[in-house]
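[Solved] Which block belongs to which protein?

Original post:
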Amino acid sequence: MTKPRKKNRLCSLLGIEHPIVQGGMIYNSGAKLAAAVSNAGGLGLIGAGSMRPELFGEQIRKARGLTENPIGVNLPLLYANSRECLEVALAEGVKIFFTSAGSPKRAIGPLKKAGCVVVHVAASRELAIKCEDAGCDAVVVEGFEAGGHNGRDEITTMVLVPECVQAVSIPVIAAGGIATGEQMVAAMALGAEAVQIGSRFAVTVEGSGHAKFKDAVVAAGAGDTQLVMKAHVPVRLLKNEFRDQVMALENQGADREELADLLGSGRARAGMLEGDLDQGELEIGQVAGLIDDIPEVAELMTRLLDQYHSTLTRLCRE
């Protein structure tokens, strides 16, 4: 595997070799995926969004048994059990927290008191500034190309990254629509110091999603995803019967309550973990169109880094 020539601020902050962070993805980011990414020199994250606190603790311990390298957790703050999950992670000795879906002020106090690195996910320049003001060590800026829950403003990664790099002094991690080494180079050229990759890591051997879900992503094109449910909680979904129902309801002017009733509970689990490709919620990014295989993480990391360095070499020659 090709190694970068020197560490940047973000790699030094997280204690990793390569400027690649795995996204914390509901029902896709368990211990096996996080450990595999960390073993390959990136930062693996265990996603708390789909786990009860006791399972979350088990996954942290399992990951620790699979890697000696740093791992972190992703903690969406919108869930009712987010405080319990935070306490579980602290009790397990986790030192790297990526928070999202809420104000970082809700969690940063106890995390900084425990000596943790705190990184928050933002979908706008204004929110990135608030992350720095709150005391975050870095910020993930996520363009609306990303899969799963998303910003309402539909700001693309190519616009959002330079906006935020100019607005804050803390390291910026680019996310949304990144699945190749060439795209990593583009993000770094815009001022990012690392990338966060979700969808591409979800569709690996170690990703905990159902085989049917992974196969559906491989078969999909970039135009097969769409950001929906903006009146409720915006989410980018792969085309299926459920998404068609959501879009039909939105076209009728549905309000938040009507969308929430249609969504119900358990659709994300049904779709991504259990493989219900018709009525499940299939969260994936626009990079679905670039995903055409299901490799092991080690192979994927080698590919990403080779693409990254060969692209840099080509550009330096031109």
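(Second protein starts here: sequence line, then its structure tokens.)
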Amino acid sequence: MVWCSGWKLVSAVSDFGCLGLIGSGSMDLDVFKHHIKKCKIATNKPFGVNLPLYSKDVDAKIDIILQEGVKIVFTSAGNPKLYTKMLKKEGITVAHLISSEEQAIKSDAAGVDALVAEGYEAGGHNGHNETTTLCLIPAIRKITSKPLMAAGGIGTGQGMLSAMCLGADGVQIGTAFAVSDESSAHENFKLKVIQSKEGDTALALKSISPVRMMKNDFYNEVQKAEKEGVSVEEIKELIGIMGRSKKGIFDGDLIKGELEIGQVSAQMKKIRPCKEIIKEILNEYEENRIALSSDRYKYD
């Protein structure tokens, strides 16, 4: 949720009964601190921070988290052993994002409080194994008793119910909120997403770290470079680390920008407030849950 999940989105999501997470991966230290402070003013409900562990300034961001009294941290993209024990010692609830059974076992051993298992349908950075959510959730459920959230390809009530049937205790949703009124993404990006069709996203940058994005000139440029065997260093220079995602998502350059978004984007048809998105998801979840428990699905 880089360039999408600032204090406006986070506070709105938390206000309506879910848990908003500040996407710190795209924020420098001053901006990060600003969003935490604004979120504390905007809502009195719990909210958290998503903290990519590969960030060069991860230690400084943890200092800010401690200073500002944030009590929930979702770590990702790194070794959970590095910070989990210290964060928990400070009274912080820690969830870690994983994309494989091996990562789940390591996270469990590191003492995380909860796991987020993300299938490769998800937008942005992804797992090398390309395991789908449908296969990943039941596999992880078998090897841990920790609270388990499903992510990747979930943006509807039906998707949420499916994840629960697979063994998840909850879901983490990105794409549906990336195109909300409160998202800090550029209007061009939001319109591009809601106009997208099945097959408009794909995994790229597999030589570095797989990223799901929309197909455009930048995607084609990356695919060409990887096909020609361009070095990892040259590809990193091409993407400019966070530069291209900012160009696409935050600045609205649909041609040369990196448009990170999930596969479920093809089901997103409107830009609307978080309240409406949450209400629709929960209503659809309940309607389908009741239908599944009806006599129509009972067999002797």
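Accepted answer:
You had them paired correctly. Confirming on the second one: The longest helix spans residues 274-292.
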